[in-house]
Amino acid sequence: MRTQNGRGQAPPLLTRHPCFSEDASKRFGRIHLPVAPKCNISCNYCSRKYDCANESRPGVTSEILLPEEAVERFLQAMKAMPYISTVGIAGPGDSLANPEKTFHTLELVRSVSASLHLCLSTNGLMLADYADELLRLKVGYITVTVNSTDIAAAEKIYRWVRFRGKNYYGQEGATLLLERQREGLLKLKGKGIFLKINILYIPGVNDSHIQTVAQQAKEMGAHLVNVMPLIPAPGSAFEKIKRPEQVELEKMQIAVGSEIETMNHCRQCRSDAAGMLGKESVKELKCQSIKTKT
Fold it and tell me: Which residues form the domain of 44?
């Protein structure tokens, strides 16, 4: 795996996943299937607009697909882009806040292709509950967004956390989320799933805690950490926070790289992204009028 700290090459299973290996990103693509509209936490940096085709950031898609439609989208993409090696679910909400749709989609994809990598992204709140199902489905790659392991900082990032039908706010919500993230990661530690931790670099909010997150991520079994810059989203609570400068981001990535392998080629993809990283092909697929299905 080529990372900023130069610790060597990727294990064989990573050599075809474009998000887990920079070398793979030059040869292979991925497709995100937007089947998961619901979210179970409210983040102050998030503003999801399904119909904003000009935005390129997590949580944005042009339409929500049913599992059967998602598989058709996948098959269509494979004909146009045979270099796709990975099928993922990354929202636009949280994959594990929509377990039926997420798992049904993954099962359908697996039924038509046994060789492609399956992956998903999650905030980790429900990871422990669905760890066994993820193992059963042979999901090989999971990304968990952990923006802080400090409760005070997490309080600033999350408005509320919805768990088992109840909303939790402030310190209570932040504590619950951090505990559940840790529980889920530890449950998958050493189980053969490659774990990546995404950390959003939010200046003045969590920047003093990011290196600690990286240290604890390694202890919880993560193989890779991806430090991403805040994209100030119009309409979000953090819309006026300035995006980190590139030099600040690189400095943070170097610091984190002293603790654990880092991913430094992230493109902060949309929830309906398809193709090579940074060379999106969404418009080539069926992506016309907005359709939201729940």
Answer: 12-283
Maximum alpha-carbon separation in the chain:
49
**Using an 8 Å Cβ cutoff, are 15 and 23 in contact?**
yes
Phi/psi at 133 (5° precision): -65, -40
CATH code assigned at 47: 3.20.20.70
Q: Please, what sign has the CA dihedral across residues 257, 260, 266, 270?
A: negative
Other residues' Cβ atoms within 10 Å of the Cβ of residue 231:
17
Residue 13 CA to residue 30 CA, distance in Å, equals 15
Residue 7 forms part of a structural domain: no
Domain count, the chain: 1
The verdict on whether omega for the bond into residue 99 sits within 30 degrees of 0, i.e. cis, is: no
The token pair at 89 is 């679910």
**Token couple for 83:** 């270099």
Q: What is the per-residue pLDDT across 16-68, written as a single tens digit (0 to 9) for each?
A: 666 666 666 556 778 889 999 999 999 999 876 544 433 444 556 678 999 99
Q: In the sheet where 166-169 sits, what is the strand order?
A: 41-43, 158-163, 166-169
- Across 242-261, b (16+ Cβ under 10 Å) vs e yields eebeeeebeebbeebbebbb
Flag whether 38 is in a domain: yes
Neighbours of 49 (CB within 10 A): 18
The answer to the question of residue 290 being in a domain is no
Helical ranges in the chain per DSSP H: 22-25, 67-80, 99-112, 127-136, 151-157, 170-188, 210-219, 246-257
- The answer, yes or no, to whether residue 281 has pLDDT greater than 60, is no
User: Could you please report the per-residue DSSP string of 41-104?
Assistant: EEETT----TT-TT--STT--S----HHHHHHHHHHHHHH-TTEEEEEE--BS-GGGSHHHHHH
Identify which has the larger pLDDT, 170 or 46: 170
In a domain, 194, yes or no: yes
CA-based torsion, 248, 254, 257, 261: positive or negative: positive
